[in-house]
Prior knowledge:
Elements: H1 3-13, H2 21-33, H3 36-42, E1 53-56, H4 66-83, E2 89-94, H5 100-113, E3 117-121, H6 127-136, E4 141-145, E5 154-161, H7 171-181, E6 196-199, H8 201-215, E7 227-230, H9 239-247, E8 252-254, H10 280-289, E9 293-297, E10 304-309, E11 315-317, H11 320-333, E12 342-347, H12 353-360, E13 364-368, H13 373-381, E14 386-392, E15 396-399, H14 408-424, H15 429-440, E16 442-451, H16 454-469, E17 475-476, E18 479-486, E19 491-493, E20 500-502, E21 511-515, E22 520-525, E23 531-540, H17 548-566
Amino acid sequence: xxxxxxxxxxxxxxxxxxxxxxxxxxxxxxxxxxxxxxxxxxxxxxxxxxxxxxxxxxxxxxxxxxxxxxxxxxxxxxxxxxxxxxxxxxxxxxxxxxxxxxxxxxxxxxxxxxxxxxxxxxxxxxxxxxxxxxxxxxxxxxxxxxxxxxxxxxxxxxxxxxxxxxxxxxxxxxxxxxxxxxxxxxxxxxxxxxxxxxxxxxxxxxxxxxxxxxxxxxxxxxxxxxxxxxxxxxxxxxxxxxxxxxxxxxxxxxxxxxxxxxxxxxxxxxxxxxxxxxxxxxxxxxxxxxxxxxxxxxxxxxxxxxxxxxxxxxxxxxxxxxxxxxxxxxxxxxxxxxxxxxxxxxxxxxxxxxxxxxxxxxxxxxxxxxxxxxxxxxxxxxxxxxxxxxxxxxxxxxxxxxxxxxxxxxxxxxxxxxxxxxxxxxxxxxxxxxxxxxxxxxxxxxxxxxxxxxxxxxxxxxxxxxxxxxxxxxxxxxxxxxxxxxxxxxxxxxxxxxxxxxxxxxxxxxxxxxxxxxxxxxxxxxxxxxxxxxxxxxxxxxxxxxxxxxxxxxxxxxxxxxxxxxxx
Length: 568
């Protein structure tokens, strides 16, 4: 069938049983308007992938609504009941987004109707607390409704398994198969109240205690370290202050106008803490208070952004790689008797500098595909080793294994521990970062995201990836390519002599070009947004602090040349 035929077929399906009156009316209204919104809502099914489901809230098969989320839930329910003779339990959390609470209640009702015990958070909670509660309550599965830092019109459905991490092979494929087999009329919406139990403060208190236990690692004058914090209208507005103040950071200031949960994120263009605009109000407050650090978290509090003063006295936002560098170096520096029985984790598109830090401290370094679930999986896969911490370039970091996903709250505590210790020693986080560059090499990265929406956008992203695969690139910025890694074909190729070897990774639509000087260019479609992402990494030696600005400029110029070369 062509697109028009698919749209018509899906439209007709959504105008009759089992869809309710409101849905049918809204679908007909969309059809009558006959615009691109209607086309985009019906040209395909919103897919449940290995990372769950994320999309625009609305009516139709390519939208987030009670029916698309209902299929997910019914499929997961069927799978749980197939593999277990005992009555299993799930835990559900949701963030501040519009309709998150209503959708979470519907998800809970479907699980309850399938004779599955449900622990439902009574109000909004961060994603890391969902992971924590899953382990604490010994549930088989956890669901969090969130679209992370996506625009307000989005929502999502993330699935976690009994280890506390996001679903990974082989469970993900089994769940997908079950979900895809579900027809809308098979969704059981009949609530069983006896199977639903609300949870809240008891889990909060336990999480706060364990977060402090894992993140309070320094020796400093914490009470003299001034913190400005913004939850950007999200879920961390209670837990993060409780953790920081509980750890001893008394000089703590929250951005009042962004402390109120708001699914419209009314004070920012995007609730993404890696963007300057999202932290603008917090930085202005920091300038007035002469704060030492600015902390911002995304709506579900799994990602954290940090702004610190540079040598010119301006607040600058550390990128995800820089944050990962200083946190990893600091955590490892506080450990004793390290050896290869310990490990840290990262991803294929994150800075290679982390490997050098691991080698220096004689700990094992493991790298996975993009997506934090692969770092969480490492803990299960290597039970004979002790996980210390892990991070990725997209502002995700995890400290210890008491949760199994990126954790903005505990990561923020470690950042404050580092900052306060630097201040006690008349130094700063920027100085600490530069010292890391001197010690391990100066790695500088740039992320470029290109938005491509709708069916046409998907096609364009596919064309870009195909073009890169057939481009015949043999040099980057005048330096010969060392290899090309294609994770879709599981191959590592030497473009000069033509040699090829197999990559021991699950298949994924990721390409990495690496030159002989360590320069890398990676490309991949986003798994959660209509974007294609390019990751550029360059490096150089740094002999002293006095050379920092000069080398920084040289690396910045190199990145700009690479951007022109690849025509991003």
